[in-house]
Amino acid sequence: MTEGGAARRSAAKWMGPDGPGARLLLIIVAITLLVLASIFVFVVAWIPGQRADAVRRWQQRLAMVAEDREIAVTNWIRELAADARTAAAFPSVGEAAERREAGRGPSPDAERRFQGILDKFVETEELAGLLVFDGRGGPIASVGIPDTWERGRNGKWAIPGPERTRVQFVAGQDGRPLMAMSVSWATRSAGDVHVVALADPSRWLYPFLGRDLVWSRGETILVAREPGRPALLSPSRLLPSKLLEPFVGIERGGAITATREVPGTDWTLVVRVDRDEALAPFRKQTWTAAVVMALGVLLVTLLTFGLYRETRRRFRKQAEASAQRLALLLDEAGDAIVSVDARGRLVDANRKAEELWGRSHEELLSMTIGDLEVSGERPAFNRQIEKVRKGSHRLFETEYVRKDGSRVPVEVSACSTTVEGGPGYLAIIRDLSARKEAERRYRLISENSVDVIWTFDIASMRFTYVSPSIMRLRGSTPEEVMAQPLEAAVTAESAVLVRTVLEEHLAALARGADLCSSRSVRLNQPRKDGTIVTTETVARVLADSHGKPVEVLGVTRDIGERLAAEEEIRKSRAALIETQRIGHVGSWERDLVSGEVTWSDEVYRIFGLDPSGPRIPPERFLSLIHPEDRDVVSRLPRDAR
């Protein structure tokens, strides 16, 4: 067969439904879909999820910082309120308020003493200033505050009710923010006294808010919750607003924030961090994961490509080896093998096909199968091939024409297949010349043999073939005998014998006896004229391809003449024995090669021996002869030579 045909078959097998190429393609498609699904999950689910987790962790962290700062600021406000209440409770404050209420001014010594107490208190409590007002808001005393600023800001203080406190941020004379703690204190005779303690937030509050922050682009700020216009109460590095002035957009700059309200105030603590800085580890992790995934995808791609190349290389190697073996098998096959396309053109042929038609490979491939067919056989051949093209497997006999014009009988086994990508069929063509000649010779022997040759089906117990010599034996034609049951072919006694012998032989075969062993049996068979003929039949059992006994092959011979001759011999022997007994004459013979001596019954009687006893060996025979005659008797065999 040609290498091109083998290559086409190899390619078709590689990408066929059950080929390794198709299976590998499915694996590659599955891996590709898996990689794409992984990328989709990575982009759509993993990255947003990780980002949300990073933001949530930062918000939790910022909330903890805000809570810590809120607790400290609240405590600081409470301490400032306590300082203001302490100052309001001083007796000298109440006395100053009573004198002012009565319209009396303090003495210079009392005023100095009162001012000294307040100065000492402000110094001790590290306050930025202290103001004391009477119930009508008139100033009584102040520490650390110029008169001009005091008068200018007097009308803007928020005076709380009796026994109440209020904290607020105010702008100092130099514009710097100050924290003002206002406390109202009720005296016994002068009514309410209002004390405002001023604290500089830059001494503790602002440093505290910026303390222990581990991120470089973040901050903690304090804002006022004024409706419609929040004001910045602490310095901010990220917001372009001045202190105590309104600002817009606490999320400006893309920051992550956490807020906490300060109890008892209209302030809010805001802890914020730049989003880029906060998400930098997430972006690094994402890029790392992306690089790892890309490397994984690249590795999977390389492995898949390598697997594809290696699998294809191995398949090609196996296909080439298989094609070589197949080509060798086809070329060494005992039958011609050809592949034919839909137009009847020979596409491939093995070496036996070249020998069958006596043509070269190139000549065969330039012809159609019809060119090789005997013209008279073409209609029947075309009908068979039409059934093959419809998907049926056909086995039929036809004749082809060799290049020299001679005819060759063949048996064709054809089945449909794909040839060069289209419909076609494959045919195995067996040369029947030798078999036809053997059949002719067998038929000649069978038809001219005196013995009857026959085959017998075990399952149906009927003859499947009988040679024409049955006419001389029984007077019946082979067709008549094959239509008869076993009981009509032999007498009743012989039919029972046949069944018994057959069952015993089959049982012996089942126990492992030799299948080639034969059995001989004597049967009586009826002739067509009603007479009985005695026959001797020798038969053996034939088995199928699985070793199961299915048929009996036998030869039957007429032994009537032989039996008559044997009867004549028996009668002659009986007469000889009777003659010797009457004449008292015996006979004996000796085998000159083995030395064995055979006596007639009368010889035994002459010597007084029992004829049914053991044979007499030669040495004892001489002992029965008279001594004077032994020498003569011993020379008889030598003289006979």
Tell me what the structure shows.
The protein contains 20 helices and 21 strands. It has 641 residues and is an alpha+beta fold. α1 runs antiparallel to α8 (280-332) and α2 packs antiparallel against α8 (280-332). β3 and β4 form a beta hairpin. The protein is rod-shaped.
Q: What's the short story on this structure?
A:
This protein is α+β, with helices and mostly antiparallel strands and 641 residues long.
Helices and strands in order, then pairings?
Blueprint: H1 3-14, H2 20-88, H3 91-102, H4 108-124, E1 129-133, E2 139-143, H5 147-153, E3 165-171, E4 177-186, E5 192-199, H6 205-209, E6 218-224, E7 231-232, E8 255-261, E9 267-274, H7 275-278, H8 280-332, E10 336-341, E11 346-349, H9 351-357, H10 361-365, H11 378-389, E12 394-401, E13 407-419, E14 422-431, H12 433-448, E15 452-457, E16 462-466, H13 470-474, H14 478-482, H15 486-489, H16 492-510, E17 518-526, E18 532-543, E19 549-558, H17 560-583, E20 588-590, E21 597-599, H18 601-606, H19 618-623, H20 630-640
First-residue to last-residue Cα separation: 74 Å
| Average pLDDT over all residues | 80
Strand content: 15-25%
Instruction: Output the radius of gyration.
Output: 66 Å
- Which stretches are poorly predicted, pLDDT < 50 over at least 5 residues? 150-159
Shape: rod-shaped
**Which structural class fits the helix and strand makeup?**
alpha+beta
How is the quaternary structure best described?
single chain
Number of E-state strands = 21
Q: Output the number of helix runs.
A: 20
Strand order of the largest sheet: 2-1-5-4-3
Query: How much helical structure, as a percent, in the residues?
Result: 40-55%
Largest pleated sheet: 5 strands, antiparallel
